[in-house]
Design brief:
This protein is an alpha/beta fold. The protein has 2 domains: 173 residues, 3-Layer(aba) Sandwich (Rossmann fold), CATH 3.40.50.2000; 184 residues, Rossmann fold, CATH 3.40.50. Helix content is 49%, strand content 16%. The radius of gyration is 21 Å and the shape is globular.
């Protein structure tokens, strides 16, 4: 069968690649065409366009690039018409994907969604559009199934794909990794400033402002696959800072603590059992708009899943050197760390077991072949 998959960022590329592997087990002759990244491309199929070309963050940035985005939407529709897939699989990236889904449903294509848009966070009215345009939804957070049921929309909870991604990765020998990456023997504080230029610019400077205050530690920036080292280099003014590209999981596996930009990385850090402080600072206009439409108590996935504060969130004005220093000291303290470890284990239980990609692939294949 023919599958058309659309993702819009690095995390979608990861989950999309694992879904593709699982689909190929179900359907060895699968013909897969996709909008994704390097990980999906390494599995096979045909890459239409890379997510790096469509990486826009926040309301203001989207408005400024609206003409470019509309061009991508037009091209995507034409490409789908030419390919004539048996099913279109959308992964997260709601702003783009829901527009394509509305058109695709009207054109008679089967529409499946893996990793729900965060309609539970804002603009819940989109649920009606999802019910209208999406034939099947596969959710990865335990509270999402209950949320959708309040709108009389039955969805499939398949578990969280990060559990598989982390469990299936090759084990890292710390001594060899440090030697290869030219790291010192000091305990590591990992810096995960995000994947988009706008968020890295907002976050990394504040994170690096602590370097001189914690000379007994080595600060290591986790470089995103969507950015070049030259971009990060402009922020590094201190000596006690290292940079590692495309090795975030390996880095987290040997880290003492982490400063993490809100997003999927907060959950990844928790699953690696690394104490963290969550950071978030957006364009002022984007933040003011978001504050008026987002109704959640928390911004990090860790706290949202646990429905209580497990990790400290420093948002907008609270993300400053003084507060960040205080919270970093706290997570380096033994008592705070022990409690966070216990919370992390409880979090992992809530996410269910392994097999999210396989569960989703099997459901998609069975639904489409009938």
């Amino acid at each position: 069968m023919k599958y058309y998959i659309i993702v819009g960022e690095a995390s979608g590329d990861l989950h999309g690649s694992n879904l593709m592997k699982a689909l190929l087990k179900q359907d060895p002759n699968a013909d897969i065409r996709f909008w994704g990244g390097d990980l999906m491309q390494s599995v096979g199929g045909t890459l239409v366009t890379h997510y790096k070309e469509r990486s826009f963050m926040g309301f203001a940035e989207v408005i400024l690039n609206l003409r470019k985005i509309l061009g991508f939407i037009k091209f995507c529709k034409k490409d789908i018409e030419t390919f004539q897939p048996d099913v279109i699989i959308f992964i997260d990236n709601s702003g783009f994907n829901l527009r394509i889904a509305n058109w695709a449903k009207q054109e008679g294509f089967k529409t499946h969604y893996y990793i729900s848009p965060q309609v539970w966070a804002s603009r819940a009215g989109r649920v009606e559009k999802i019910k209208r345009d999406i034939d099947a939804m596969y959710v990865i957070l335990p509270f999402e199934k209950e949320f959708y049921q309040t709108y009389k929309y039955n969805v499939h909870f398949v578990g969280h794909p990060l559990i598989d991604a982390i469990a299936n990765r090759p084990q890292v020998l710390e001594k060899e990794f440090r030697k290869k990456q030219k790291l010192s023997d000091k305990p590591i504080i990992a810096l995960l400033p995000g994947s988009r230029k706008q968020e890295i610019t907002k976050m990394l400077g504040v994170m690096l402002s602590l370097v001189e205050e914690f000379k007994g530690y080595e600060f290591v920036i986790a470089g995103a696959p969507s950015q070049d080292y030259e971009f990060y280099q402009s922020f590094i003014k201190q000596n006690n800072v290292s940079f590692i590209a495309n090795k975030t999981y390996d880095l987290l596996s040997i880290s003492k603590a982490a400063l993490v930009t809100s997003g999927t990385a907060t959950l990844e850090t928790a699953l690696f059992k690394v104490p963290q402080v969550v950071c978030y600072k957006a364009n002022a206009i984007s933040y003011q708009i978001a504050k008026r439409i987002i109704t959640l108590k928390f911004i990090s996935l860790v706290n949202l899943i646990m429905d209580r504060e497990v990790v400290t969130e420093l948002i907008q004005g609270d993300l400053n050197k003084k507060r960040l220093k205080k919270e970093l000291i706290a997570i380096l303290d033994t008592k705070k760390r022990e409690q966070m470890f216990l919370d992390y284990y409880e979090l992992e239980k809530k996410l269910g077991g392994k097999g999210a990609s396989e569960n989703a692939a099997k459901l998609i294949y069975e639904a489409v072949k009938n």
